[in-house]
Structure formats: C-alpha cells, structure tokens
Design brief:
By secondary structure, the protein is mostly beta strands. 8% of the residues lie in helices and 38% in strands. The strands form seven sheets. A five-stranded antiparallel beta sheet has the order 1-18-19-20-21, with no helix packed on it. Strands 2, 3, 26, 27 and 28 form a five-stranded antiparallel beta sheet that branches. A four-stranded antiparallel beta sheet has the order 4-5-6-7, with no helix packed on it. The protein is globular and about 55 Å long.
Length: 416
C-alpha cells in the first residue's frame, strides 16, 4: 500500500530534484477491547465505507469512524533512547502479530516495537553492506509479515523476514530508455511496482516547462523490467533564469510529482488536477477511470498574496534579491489541484487526500471503493497517514515542538 505523492519526500530524480515544491511534498482514551470489536465488525462485513470522524452518521454506503482522542499506541519521544527518538520517518506498518515497524530515514534503520510499544530490535543502518542503506526511501509489508525496504542510493531492495531477519538483497536495473528506478511495493505474484524518473536535464531559462513524465512499471522478482503500466506527468515548472535560487521550481499550488498508490493487485495513478484517478492492473491492462465529486477552487488574488506573504523570508541558501524577484514575478496557475495524495487500505478502498494549500492541520480524504464508488469522506487532525488497515489507522503526529511520534488509532466500519 505504498504511495508516491508530494506529501512525502521525493525520490531521487535523475533529470533534476523536485525543487521548491510549494504544495507540501512523489506517494494510516480507547482500550484494546475496542480494537478487538473493530476486528469483529470488519470480519462480519468486509465493506469499504467512510464518513467523518466523530459524528457517526453514514454518508453513502456505510460509515467509518476514526476516534483520535486517545491513541491505542504511541511510540516516540523527544528525550528518550535513540530507538524511540524519530526525525525523518520514511514509513510504518503493523504486522499481524501487532508488532509495529518504523522506518527511520535519519539512521536508515527499521525499528521493531511490540504491541505495547516496547522496543524489540533495530535492523539495517547506514552503510554499503547488503543489510544497510545509503538512502532508505521507503518500506512496505509483503506476504507472511515479511518486509521490503528500498535503498535509493544503491538501487536495491532489502528483504526481511517476519522476525526482522535479513533474507536477501535484490539489485534493481535501470532499464534502457527509462530513468532511475524507485521500488514502491510488491504485487501479489512477487513482481515489483517501480516508478522511473524522467531522464535528461531541464533547461535553466525559458519560462514555463511542461511537466516531465514518470513511467510506472512492473519489474521481475530479480529486478528486471517486465512491462510498463502507465505514465504520470509532473506539474508545470518555471525556468526563471534567476541566479541564487533553485532553477526550475514547480508553479505555486502544484502537486509536483504525480500521485501513485497501490495494493497487491492494482495501481492508482493521477496528476491531481481533476477529480479523477486511473486504476491499472499490473500488466498495464484492466484500466478504469474513477471519478468523484470535488469542489473546484480558482487561485484568487488573495491566495497569491498569502503565498507571497508566507514566503517573504528567503532561506539561508537563497539569494535574497533573487528570491524577492521570484515572488514578484512567479506565474500562478488558474486553479488549485483537487488532490495531493492517495493510499489503498487493507480492504482495497482508495483514500484520496484533498489538496490543502496552507497545511493547517486538518486533512480531508475522499474514499472510493476499488470499483470507483464514492464511500464518503474522513477528516483527520494533525495526522500524517502512513498505513490504513481494516481496523486501524497508523500515522505520525507532531507536538507543539514539532517532535514526531508514531500513533495507532482504531477504525470502526459500520454495516450499511
């Protein structure tokens, strides 16, 4: 259930890093008894449905309740041991045993915690060995509670068994005519879902540049290209020719790298500009265009001024005068994107996060069945979603000092 979207850090891009992405960042007091009740509800209905967090009223074909008042589990602190101090969380998953595994990019470790949050072990680490990572891009669950983790620096997969034991390393080839690969997840047949960056370099001067196309592909178990699935186009860039600031930023209010989400059967791909996302089978067939109702929002003069006001102070790496000129001259799109991220939950439902230009703490998710039927919406507060199970949602919360912790909340799905 990996996703490539601008809410997360972008993968390495051979034609140029995604600079100055302005939309955010290519890609889930309650007792354990309530969690058990959730599991029984899921087993009884197996239905994908969604609605707002606290009111419990159905909208569509059922309701989903995510009570964020008290987490079932919380892992992470500002002043604890190294294993419970997080900085750049690249992903988290919950195994069938209740064990939670957190991928910490700063140390390139996979950290295992039991169902109560006690640290069990850490594996991986920074280095060049087969069990180590140069750049830990992401992690996902596979069959039988094994894990896959991708090293973006050395273009290889590390596979770990259910107990965290290292199993093997798999190199991923750079296919002819395609750019640098990044593995996102595994299909049910053991093949890999890969996003390939565009190759070549962008011009540094020349005005608006149409977004490059990332290739979504399927690779064999041993890391070789089998077939392409589809492509997704980046947002438009502006090659402004100003010295001292990043050369080709996306336009303001852009999605950036397109949205890619997947489970073991389907891949969902879209550029975020309209309320539509395409579902593809792993062989590049079985395509379905999924659409839903979403508000259309133009970029107003007030939006433009707020954008300039909130970015009036240049970073320490930027030339101040060039930055001020950028803010005066940057072109704006006519309308806001519709969505900026997608995830597929354990029941095959697609959660699509609405675009939020200001990042004010509340995220709204439209939920669709895998056939594209609208199931309602979910509102979450101060939660970066990492995984959505049948009866839980796992994500990252940040306190007032921006210290992250991994939290687990119960999800109850009602029978319509």
């Amino acid at each position: 259930m990996r996703t490539l979207a601008p809410d997360s850090e972008v993968m390495p891009n051979t034609h140029q890093e995604a600079e100055m992405t302005t939309a955010g960042r290519f890609t889930l007091g309650t007792s354990l008894g309530i969690l058990a009740m959730c599991l029984l509800l899921i087993a009884g209905c197996g239905n994908c449905a969604a609605e707002e967090r606290f009111d419990g009223q159905a909208a569509g074909q059922g309701a989903i309740h995510v009570d964020q008042r008290v987490p079932i589990l919380s892992i992470g602190t500002a002043d604890g041991a190294e294993w419970e101090t997080f900085s750049r969380i690249a992903g988290a998953v919950r195994l069938s045993t209740g064990t939670v595994v957190v991928a910490e990019r700063n140390t390139s470790e996979l950290r295992y915690f039991d169902a109560r949050g006690a640290h069990l072990k850490s594996v991986g680490g920074r280095g060049e060995g087969p069990e180590e990572f140069g750049f830990l891009y992401g992690m996902w669950k596979q069959a039988g509670d094994s894990l896959g983790a991708y090293d973006g620096a050395y273009q290889r997969l590390a596979i770990y068994g259910p107990a965290g034991e290292f199993v093997r390393s798999i190199p991923i080839e750079t296919a002819v005519s395609l750019g640098r690969p990044t593995v996102l997840s595994q299909f049910a047949d053991g093949t890999w879902l890969v996003a390939n960056a565009p190759s070549g370099r962008l011009p540094f001067d020349g005005g608006l540049i149409e977004g490059s196309v990332w290739t979504v592909a399927r690779y064999s178990r041993d890391g070789r290209l089998l077939n392409t699935i589809t492509g997704v186009r980046e947002s438009t860039r502006w090659a402004h020719g100003l010295a001292g600031i990043p050369a080709t930023p996306y336009l303001p209010f852009s999605v950036g790298i397109g949205v890619i989400a997947a489970d073991a059967e389907y891949v969902y791909v879209g550029d975020g500009t309209a309320p539509t996302i395409a579902r593809w089978g792993s062989s590049g067939d079985d395509s379905l265009a999924m659409q839903w109702d979403a508000p259309h929002r133009v970029v107003s003069s007030r939006d433009m001024q707020r954008y300039r006001d909130e970015r009036s102070t240049p970073s320490r790496d930027d030339n101040p005068e060039a930055w001020r000129q950028y803010l005066r001259e940057v072109p704006f799109p006519d309308s806001m994107p519709v969505y900026t991220r997608a995830l597929v939950d354990a029941l095959g439902c697609v959660w699509i996060r609405r675009f939020d230009p200001w990042g004010e703490g509340v995220s709204v998710w439209d939920v669709l069945s895998r056939e594209g039927v609208g199931m309602g919406e979910v509102r979450l507060v101060n939660l970066e979603v990492l995984e959505i199970g049948g009866d839980y949602i796992l994500g990252v919360e940040r306190d007032d000092l921006d210290v992250p912790s991994v939290v687990l909340f119960p999800v109850v799905r009602e029978v319509p």
